[in-house]
Amino acid sequence: MRIRGKLAVLAVALPLFAGVAACGELQQAQQGVEDAQQGVENAQQGLEAAQNCAKATGAVNFVPDFSDQQQVREQARSKAEEIGQLAEQTSDQALSDALRDVQQSMRRVSSGEVTIENSAEWTQHQLEQTERVLKICSGITGN
To answer: How far does the signal peptide extend, from start to end residue (predicted)?
Structure first.
C-alpha cells in the first residue's frame, strides 16, 4: 500500500512539476518577445532620427540670394515652415531646439528684417546654426 500511495502522489505531482517548468519556459519566451519588441522600437527611433537629420540638413543649408527681396522673403517663409514641421516631428529635444532657432532666423529674413545690407552678419549666424544642427545629428546618428 505504501508503494501505491507514493506512486499515486508521484503521479499527481509530476504534471504539476511539468506545469511549473512549462510556465518558466513561457516566461522566458515572453521576455524574449519583449526584448525583440524593444529592439525593433530602438531601431525605428534610430531610423526616424536619421531621416529627420537628413531632412534637417537639407533644410538648414539654405543661403538665400538677397538681391531679390521679394523672392528671398517667400523662400525664407517656406523654409521656416518646413523647418518648423521638422522640429515638431523629431523626438530629440536638442535637435528640435536647434531647428526652432533656425526657424526663427528664417522668419527674420521672411519679415524683411534681414536685407542685403545686413545679410553678411545673418549668413555667419546661419552657418553657426547649421553647424550646430549637423553636430547634433552626428551625435544622434552616430550612436
So the answer is: 1-18
Cβ atoms < 10 Å from Cβ of 60:
28
Q: 100-133 burial string, b = 16+ CB within 10 Å, else e?
A: ebbbebbbbbbeeebeeeebeebeeebeebbebb
State the total domains in the chain.
1
- Which amino acid is located at 32 in the chain? G
Cβ atoms of residues 130 and 99 within 8 Å: no
CB within 8 A of 62, min separation 6: which ones?
75, 76, 79, 106, 126
Quote the pTM value.
0.69
Q: What is the pLDDT of residues 4-59, one digit of tens each?
A: 666 566 566 556 566 666 667 767 777 777 777 777 776 676 777 788 888 888 88
Could you identify the residue written with the cell 517663409?
77
